[in-house]
Amino acid sequence: MSRSQATILTNMCLIEDGRGNIVMQIRNPKRYSWSGAALPGGHIEVHEGLVESVIREVKEETGLTIKNPSLVGMKHWYTKEDERYLVFLYRTNEFTGEIHSTEEGEIKWVARKDFAQMDLAYDMLNLLRVFEEEELSELFYRERLEDDFVREFW
């Protein structure tokens, strides 16, 4: 039995300013198949390290240069093509620079308390639990049922 499988590697980063605000990207619906406010991140390139990739993606998407991102967990599922889709979740409060928007979407600081009133990307509130609850390190979508996934936290 082969132990290899097709895999897509990505990352996402929660960037905090120490005053209750988080950097959010309001995705451009013309560019993405899913929209809403999400954390910055993207694909890991061939021969690129995991930390290196999240630093690069955050810089490209927000203008911020982050330092010392901590791996806090992961989110993963299987695509319709049976590829495992992995999202490495990072968190940091160390950064330099000023935020700016790109063609990928509007970048802004958002108060954590305002998330419930925002148009968030699918399942963002569940994903934030992995960042905020120390006992959680994984969000796995086991299977899809109609328009929703069966979620499991570990």
UniProtKB/TrEMBL annotation:
GO molecular function: hydrolase activity
Cofactor(s) demanded: Mg(2+)
Keywords of the record: Hydrolase, Magnesium
Domain Nudix hydrolase span(s) in chain numbering: 6-132
UniProt-listed InterPro entries: NUDIX_hydrolase-like_dom_sf, NUDIX_hydrolase_dom
Stated name of the protein: 8-oxo-dGTP diphosphatase
Phylogenetic placement of the source organism: Bacteria, Bacillati, Bacillota, Bacilli, Lactobacillales
